[in-house]
Amino acid sequence: MRAVRFFLLAASVVVVGHGLAAAQTTPPPQETPPAGQPQQPQQGSPPAPQGQEYQPPPQGYPQQQQGYPPPQGYPPPQGYPQQQPGYAPPPGYPPGYQPPPGYAQPPGYAPPPPQGRSGFLALPYIGFENHLGSSGDDLGVGFVLGALLGGRLNPQFSLNGEITINILNTENVPSDYDVTAYEVDVTFSPLFHAPVSATAEFVVGPKLGFFGGSQEARYLGTSTGRTSVNGLAGGFNAGMFFAVSPSTSLGGMLSFTIRDATRVCQKLPGAAEDCVDDVNLNSEKVLGFNFGALF
Fold it and tell me: Is residue 100 part of a domain?
């Protein structure tokens, strides 16, 4: 009987000791506060700011480490200017730089062409001419083809040589006759260039040189004689040209030329050519209007 009591006492001591050991190693379960009551911060969490209750981050939300920049897409701190959606800095400006307020280039803006050019100059033209006064008897409006070639000393002045071919339009010719006549001027024709606007240029200048001409008559296809003439030529050119590119302008030019013959030669069929110097002939006065391109 005494042995049974001793065994029960020993068993009770073992059970009580095992329970005390388990209580020291297992933390007590946390109690869930009732609804509406603030949750207490866990041990090791940062203290809540004064006047505010600590709110733990939602489950699965990444916690931000101290000193680590916020991830992409993270809302900026309060008071930081937010970038408007779809905004992009204007092209041509460095990052972070914006043009002055209200500044904008007008649509279709292009820099104006230069006010003057230098270097090689070419002015081919085509047009019409008319002999004035008595020199225009039996002559109608003729055809003109020519060109000025030279160079610009500066944007305002150019030195040029000019060649002009006039194909005369003979009238009142008897039937069965065919008359062919032409005159050629070779002159020195400098030009003064004056810009009128950003795209317009006025040119004017004298011309002085020589001319030569020829006229041949045919009857039923057979030559009846040829007359040639040469002498001095002088006058002026004036025109207006409008830029279509930085190196090209198009426009019109008025030309007035006086031709004074100093030598006349005549060649009849079967006879030698007969020439006369210091002839007393009326000077020709020729007015022409030409369309050209200035390079």
Answer: no
Spatial contact of 163 and 185, defined as CB atoms under 8 Å apart: yes
Residue 254 located in a structural domain: yes
Q: How far apart are CA 140 and CA 64, in angstroms?
A: 99
- Total number of domains in the chain: 1
What is the domain extent for residue 265? 119-294
Q: What is the pTM of this model?
A: 0.59
| Whole-angstrom distance, CA of residue 23 vs CA of residue 285 | 134
Residue 272, in any domain of the structure: yes
Q: Tens digit of pLDDT for each residue in 257-293?
A: 999 999 999 988 888 888 998 778 889 999 999 999 9
Give dist(CA 152, CA 190) in Å, integer. 9
* 124 within domain boundaries: yes
Among 40, 18, 15, 44, smallest CA distance to 30 is for 40
Question: Terminal CA-to-CA distance of the chain, rounded, Å?
Answer: 139
Read off the CATH number of the domain in which 206 is found. Answer: 2.40.160.20
Q: What pLDDT, in 10s, does the model give residues 99-119? A: 555 555 555 544 444 445 668
Cα gap 225→247, rounded to integer Å: 48
